[in-house]
Amino acid sequence: MWFSLLALTLHSATALVAAAQLALPNPPWLPPDLSEGAKKSNESVPNPQWSTLLGNALYFYEAQRSGELPSTKRVSWRNASTLDDGKSAHVDLSGGYYDAGDFSKQTLPLAFTLMSVCWGATDFGKGYDMANQTAYLDDMLRWGLDWLIQAHPSDSVLYVLVGNKDIENTYWGGDRTIPSPRPVYQINDTAPGTDVAAQTAAAFAACSNLYASRSFDSSSFSTPATLQDKSYADTLLTHAQQLYKFAVNASGGRKVYQKSVPEVAASYASTEYGDDLAIAALFLAWATNDAALYQEAEGYYDKYKLQEDNRLFNWDTKTPGLPVLFSQIAKSNPNVGGNLGKWQDAAEAYFDSIVNNKDSPAFMTTGGLVYFEGNSDDNSINPALNLAMLLRRYSTLTTSSGKKSKYLDFSQKQLDYVLGDNPMSMPYVVGVNPNSPAKPHSALAHGGNDVGEIDTNPEKNTYTLYGAVVGGPDRWDRYFDIRSDWPQAEIALDYNAPLLTLAAMHTLADSKDPFYTTLQAGEYDKVKPDGLPCDAAFPQGCKGPALSKGGKIAMAVVIVVASLIVLGLSAYYIFLLIRNAKEGTV
Ligand SMILES: *[C@@H]1O[C@H](CO)[C@@H](O)[C@H](O)[C@H]1NC(C)=O
Ligand SMILES: *[C@@H]1O[C@H](CO)[C@@H](O)[C@H](O)[C@H]1NC(C)=O
Ligand SMILES: *[C@@H]1O[C@H](CO)[C@@H](O)[C@H](O)[C@H]1NC(C)=O
Ligand SMILES: *[C@@H]1O[C@H](CO)[C@@H](O)[C@H](O)[C@H]1NC(C)=O
Ligand SMILES: *[C@@H]1O[C@H](CO)[C@@H](O)[C@H](O)[C@H]1NC(C)=O
């Protein structure tokens, strides 16, 4: 009798262990030297270059970690930081991820990132398995999801920002000396934020689906074989349902969150919340097999006239992803989903407008990047990667094979551009090739501690931020690689999200190398543009007089260099004059 009890206990213990976080590889996977990215592979499946890219893209998130760091940490130059976050409000908000190049923690883009990565891993999860990266995916997701759980201490309270942007902007330095205490901001029943509550619900629901191994159409998609944790999936689902209810029915009404927390407006003001409600309802419909929720999502799509605001997929606007998800659910589970044909038409109307360049919300740069006026100016790579990701995912659902090949072709061209097939010969991912951006806007990786000397002291980054996607080139396909130029050079959690999904997909199905393996050292240096960028950080590059401190330094450098050139030329001219005079030829 006690034998079977013991066996049972042992069995449950094993089940518990098996259900916990996956063991990380020992020795750990580490990014190879960037020179490895300039070598052709044998082009088999899984392609080692794609699986390395997936590993790099995940590794970036580890470098962004906040809080106490575990003994398994791989980024040797990172230290524990901001351990007191939340203390003033009697809530533990340590942990989680720093949002971008500085040290704030932002719930809206984090939740969007986790939703995007979980959705992608649900579709192309096998790619993580084939790259031996599933344990790192698990590690990356839990680091974010566990923090979101901490940030959601009761049904109708969600912390949405740690660290005030104004304070943040004055601190540029390492992780040991981040000023504290840091302010924290919440939404609640009387001061709600429909968008961020719904987006966070969507992240919890999408990731619950992943941990429960609920895949869509199983012939083309699959979750990672080893990533299953029923009890974690249940926990995530509970948070999703509470937050969805809070988003829908807060007594303060429905509103964008900067109305309740004006401090978020400086960096992540949201334009609307109908798309967030719809995507939350959809991921929940699929998590719970609930047709009523699918219909609620359709209701939001109509009520908030989302089809009229179908521009780009990003942390702020999820609308172009909705018809794709509506279609995926309708196809996989007709009992939950509605009219598949209607949603295919909606998805294809949007994709066709872009790939056929007719009434497109975007234009194509000369170099071939899809560019969304007004959005791409602050980060041009992310909208293109998100579009490439949606096209890839939707390509199994097209109504004709002609559309399928057009979509795949467009997706491939955008990804090729991002990975180096562009006028700069630069893959816009740090540390994957000798032509990768060398000066990403990241205080952690820079190693300097004076924002006034952001470009010069030190001139080179102290640490390589492997796997980080940068903002990207301007509308003239130019990339300057200037650290203070945040629209081009900043890195961010949401920038990397679609790269994970695309790299997983290519690992699992593509034998061809990523484009950058053809790029040898020095190619960017040959085409590096002169002058200054023209963007929000360098208005003087366009003309305007306003100079930031960093801008003044950059400008001073340019003036000094230009003066030296003029001086040099003048001296040479005078020399010629004198010599010619001596020779009597003038
Ligand atoms: C590629 O294939 C060749 C010939 O089969 C082999 O010698 C070489 O080791 C392979 N290289 C890699 C990186 O796998
Ligand atoms: C994954 O691990 C297996 C077993 O150790 C190994 O044979 C394989 O080469 C690895 N694959 C990659 C892409 O690293
Ligand atoms: C972490 O601490 C070490 C040792 O003090 C320091 O050299 C390193 O720069 C720190 N890392 C960051 C990102 O500040
Ligand atoms: C609710 O949130 C608002 C906005 O952050 C805040 O001003 C208010 O103090 C919060 N209410 C409670 C009871 O904490
Ligand atoms: C919101 O409130 C309405 C009216 O009380 C209720 O019918 C609905 O179920 C609530 N929605 C959620 C998601 O709880």
TrEMBL record:
Q: Does the keyword Hydrolase apply?
A: yes
- Keyword terms of this UniProt record: Carbohydrate metabolism, Cellulose degradation, Glycosidase, Hydrolase, Membrane, Polysaccharide degradation, Signal, Transmembrane, Transmembrane helix
Name the Gene Ontology biological process terms: cellulose catabolic process
Membrane-spanning residues where?
Answer: 553-578
PROSITE patterns linked: GH9_3
* Glycoside hydrolase family domain residues: 51-502
What superkingdom heads the lineage? Answer: Eukaryota
- Quote the EC number: 3.2.1.4
Q: Where is the signal peptide?
A: 1-19
Identify the catalytic residues: 481, 490
Q: What InterPro entries is this protein classified in?
A: 6-hairpin_glycosidase_sf, 6hp_glycosidase-like_sf, Glyco_hydro_9, Glyco_hydro_9_Asp/Glu_AS
**Catalytic reaction list:** Endohydrolysis of (1->4)-beta-D-glucosidic linkages in cellulose, lichenin and cereal beta-D-glucans
GO MF term (any one) = cellulase activity
Protein family: Belongs to the glycosyl hydrolase 9 (cellulase E) family.
Please state what the protein is called: Endoglucanase
